[in-house]
Amino acid sequence: MSSPLEIDKLTAAELKGLVVALLGQVSELQRTVAALREENARLKSKPPRPDIKPSGMDPGTEPKAQEVSKKQKRRRGATRSKLTINKEQVVEVASPGEGWRFKGYTDYVVQDLVIQPNVIKYRCERWLTPEGKMVTAALPAGIRGHFGPELQRFVLALYHTAQSTVARLTSLLRSTGIVISKREVVRLLNEKHDNFVTEVRDTLRAGLSTAAWITVDDTGARHKAKNGYCTHVGNDHFDWFGTTGSKSRLNFLELLRAGYDDYVINAQALDYMRQRSLPISVITRLADHPVTTFANRIEWMAHLEAQGIAAPKVNPDQVTIATEGALWGSIKAHGFLSNTVIVSDDAGQFNVGLHALCWIHTERLVHGLDTFQECDRNAQSSVRGQIWDYYAELKAFRRDPNPQLKPGLLTGFDNIFTKKTDFVMLDRQLKRLHANKPELLMVLDRPEIPLHTNSSENAIRSHVTRRRISAGTRSDLGRLSRDTFLSVSKTCAKVIVDFWDYLGARLYVPGSKLIPPLPDLVLALARPP
Predict the structure, then answer these.
(1) Which of 45-49, 348-352, 509-513 is predicted with the least confidence, judged by mean pLDDT?
(2) pLDDT at 174 over 90
(3) With a threshold of 0.70, does the pTM exceed it?
(4) Whole-angstrom distance, CA of residue 64 vs CA of residue 325
(5) φ and ψ of 222, to 5 deg
(6) How far is Cα 125 from Cα 110, in angstroms, rounded to an integer?
(7) 3-state helix vs strand vs coil in the chain, percent to 5
(8) What angle, 0 to 180 degrees and rounded to 10, lies between the N-to-C axes of helices 406-417 and 424-434?
């Protein structure tokens, strides 16, 4: 376009041509603005992106309880009968008037808490034997350093159940008059807990040896400023947590050995290797060798190398599959998971042995699909409704197993997960879920198993809370202590034992209740008389 100075030199015809060109450009810009306004109005009229919330499939498919009238509502039970009166105190009227007559007492029970230091000076006798040996009387059981068992119980309970931090716990103890440092609090939390570690390990062994089913899950866990994973294993009788640096299937199988270190080649190990497509030649070499049990990983890896199996990685990785098989053989050799169903959220590392899938995670895959058209939303809503109805039928079957209902449930599953809609992503998801039919319908053959992994997700939430408060652990003892006491507290709740009473019994607090070993309680629940 000409500059303003040049316009003055233009002739009338040139000016007319310039005006016509500018009017054409203005007209084009007006059409563009109108089109953009129309597009903007269209976009504003579309519904906003949906706020996808938890589906609520499990509570939504529960049979509705009958409404109970106010008269039929259960009243709150008496609390006084549960209390032990420690002290009685008479409260007198300040100044009785002339002519007043005494009419007895009105009882009023008040619960209070006494928190104060209890400093004890033990004077231990010393005796000199005829042989010249000095004998000093031993301190009462439960004393660690210069701190008694009641203080240890308070520290452990407040840290692991109240989710306190070490700094706040130290500050609280000091405010009550206890002279203690942060380092000493950390020692009370982490050190000299071998008896707890052993009991938790034995609890896992008792649970794995008797469980008809277990649910599993994992979540992130920081340790020594590195990302790791905390795995949960449990059922209605026990909970167990283990933090490691990996979430592979190899790691999961190592956890399921429950503290054993051996590798075993037996029939179950060889079957595992065949299912994972390990070459027949490799399986034959392992099966024909006279040595079938190896004490630890060093012996096992040396054996693989001697058999020529420690070659560079190929697909599938022969060393990994052979090792997984030997771990599975060890699990079976120790009597774990004999006929146990492992229920998971479809994470690959948990797919071992008898495996079932969580229906809540299955429906969530359909629930979480992004929809951009009304027809897509209608198709998604229709399929979700059918899944909810089918899930309610499975729950009814689980409550009252009837073999005559199985053919209809099998057909109903196919009708839902093989249907075709106009929503391509939904059809692909349904096809993928249909391939999981045996694992989703395991409940038809094993109606005692749960249809979801809610128990694992709820249990591992405590670990997530601790992770948000304290980020991660900085020592191996700290990691082991966190997993140990989280396992203990959750298991205590399932065997109906107060964690406070349990700590009192194990720390030798005077006057504490007698609490049987947790493995015995788990076995008693799993094998009722």
Answers:
(1) 45-49
(2) yes
(3) yes
(4) 47
(5) -90, 135
(6) 42
(7) 50, 10, 40
(8) 150
